[in-house]
Write a structure and sequence with these properties.
This protein has no helices and 10 strands. It has 156 residues and is mainly beta. Strands 1, 2, 3, 4, 5, 6, 7, 8, 9 and 10 form a 10-stranded antiparallel β-sheet that branches. The radius of gyration is 18 Å and the shape is globular.
């Protein structure tokens, strides 16, 4: 039977938005300060949607989320600084305090509007600074694909 964990989580003052997690199973350990959702996991926060086989949420003593880790078929449609992205990898991590996303293991990040695509072993996006860092596997390159705008030249 599918268990629905409609868990409402506070993501801090900057991100004060409702988070809903739906999964087949839910297990929480107060001593370890973590919650684990397994099976057909779907996380929704505003227009952002993340899906995976497993989601682990780590909390602080005040029961505020410190980190989200999605693994197993981890994919997400997310908005960062008003830009829409699709991300997928073996492990997607989000730190709501630092505003940092990471995509690990066969990582892929696609900026939807510009059709920019980046592939790498570890992709890190810092929302605060607007910086991106991409590392590759040993002996493999990072791949970045983007579209060039063609400009029409006017005859004079």
């Amino acid at each position: 039977m599918r268990i629905i964990g409609g868990l409402m989580l506070s993501v801090g003052l900057l991100l004060a938005e409702q988070v809903e997690v739906i999964a087949d199973k839910f297990n929480a350990t107060e001593a370890a300060q973590k919650a684990v959702f397994t099976g057909n996991v779907k996380v929704t926060k505003g227009t952002d949607v993340l899906t995976s086989d497993v989601l682990t949420i780590f909390f602080n003593a005040q029961k505020e989320p410190l980190k989200y880790e999605a693994s197993g078929n981890a994919k997400g449609n997310i908005t960062m600084n008003a830009i829409r992205y699709f991300a997928k990898g073996k492990l997607l991590t989000y730190d709501p305090n630092a505003l940092v996303y990471t995509v690990q293991g066969d990582g892929f990040l696609h900026e939807i509007e510009t059709d920019r695509k980046v592939y790498g072993e570890l992709i890190t996006v810092d929302q605060t600074t607007g910086s991106y860092a991409v590392d590759s596997k040993p002996n493999e390159p990072v791949k970045f694909i983007f579209q060039m705008n063609k400009q029409k030249e006017e005859a004079q």
